[in-house]
Amino acid sequence: CASASRQAGRFPPLDRERWHAFLVAAHRERASLTVDQLTRWLHEEKGFPVDVARDLADSYDSARDLLAQYDSVAA
Hints:
Elements: H1 13-28, H2 35-45, H3 50-74
Helix pairs in contact: 1-3, 2-3
């Protein structure tokens, strides 16, 4: 989070790689982090603008759904 871009619509390649690594780790660990919790944490604790935090949390939710669907098909 410390080095991530906080601008809406801006996701440099290194940030994208870190984000993807976070998504995979959350999925592997079966994290119980909700969209609201992630939004709040990114905004209040990490200083992301609320709209960017919300977008990232929505992306997190979609990615977790996709990875769960992949697991069910791959099994």
